[in-house]
Design a protein that fits this description.
By secondary structure, the chain is mainly alpha-helical. It has a single domain (2-113), classed as NADP-dependent oxidoreductase domain (TIM Barrel, Alpha-Beta Barrel). The protein contains six helices and three strands. The chain has a three-stranded parallel sheet, covered by helices on one side.
């Protein structure tokens, strides 16, 4: 981002990064926040990965009578991220949109924040070749 911003006339409005409870990228988020760049979560559900089965998420889903995906998506929304989960199934699309009639408490948000394990499922931009 420093390289881009060094020569850019306009600061990007959005930075899409892999972001889910097991890869929270706090340093990148802080960097973008300082520059007024909004984060868009790439792979917010970890492509239906281990985040959905994590005990913290499972407990919160039971507590709120929601699916694990709804809990994770709610965490994204409450954290201020743009989140557009992928689905082709109408029932999942409806489920993914049903996030606005419940809220996670501060303690619940902290519990999810405690899940960060640096677990990346996509390419690492620090080591990937873009040639």
């Amino acid at each position: 981002m420093d390289e881009l911003l060094k020569d850019a006339e306009t600061v990007p409005a959005v930075n899409q990064i892999e972001l889910h409870p097991l890869l929270q990228q706090k340093e990148t988020r802080a960097y973008c926040d300082e520059r007024g760049i909004v984060i868009e979560s790439y792979s917010p559900l970890m492509q239906a990965g281990e985040a959905l089965e994590h005990p913290v998420i499972a407990d919160l889903a039971r507590k709120h009578d929601r699916t694990p995906a709804q809990v994770i998506l709610r965490w994204h929304v409450q954290s201020g991220f743009i989140v557009i989960p992928k689905s082709v199934k109408p029932e999942r699309i409806r489920e993914n949109f049903a996030l606005f009639d419940f809220e996670l408490s501060e303690d619940e948000m902290r519990a999810i924040e405690g899940m960060d394990a640096g677990r990346r499922i996509g390419a690492d931009p620090d080591t990937a070749s873009f040639k």
